[in-house]
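WARN  no MSA supplied for this record, continuing single-sequence
INFO  ligand: calcium ion
INFO  echoing inputs
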Amino acid sequence: MRVLIVEDEEKLARNVASVLKEVASSAVDLSHDGEDGLHMALTNSYDLIILDLMLPKVDGLTLLARLRTRKIQTPVLVLTARDAGSEVIRGLNLGCDDYVTKPFDMGELVARCKALIRRCHGQASSLIRVGPLAINTLSRQVEFGGQSFLLPAMEYRLLEYLAMRSGEVISKTEILDHLYDFHAERFSNVIEVYISALRRRFDPAPPYKLIHTLKGHGYMLGERAA
Ligand code: CA
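INFO  complex generated
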């Protein structure tokens, strides 16, 4: 998953970013003003945008309105001051999906972020099942064949992304866009390496396969005969 944080309090933004990377295994981009934030949101692929309302250059509500006008439906979680009830209502009317009042509890923020991302992909529960595979998105434990696994960070990030969108064919470019932040170097062959690693771990009994490669199109997670 890849998250954009638009927040001018740089220390707060960095704290949220490091917690999301650590606890939610997310790729995170930071932006410290509304103009840059809008540009980032329009030019990259995010699974969630965390948006402060009081921002330099372009305020949060204007940014949100411009995104929705451009038909960008990425879920948006708004950060707002405690006494800003009318702003929250305006935000909700403009298409924000949830909000948290400052000062907020980091655990609550992360839980809300994860819930929004899940809902956006049609996953009601934090436990995602795909055939014999069960992925606990809270503990990041993966159950398979009666065993429990804690995967290396990037393998988990890839598996979770494929699982959120199980049954869909996802191109390599799209995977790269959603797994890496703006500053990361992207090598498309790295996805093949992670896919092979996941296949070695989670290989159900023939004739069933879990991870499918559709030549020239991408990858798909789902249990079906090979
Ligand atoms: Ca602010």
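The chain has a mean pLDDT of 93.
INFO  checksum written, moving to next record
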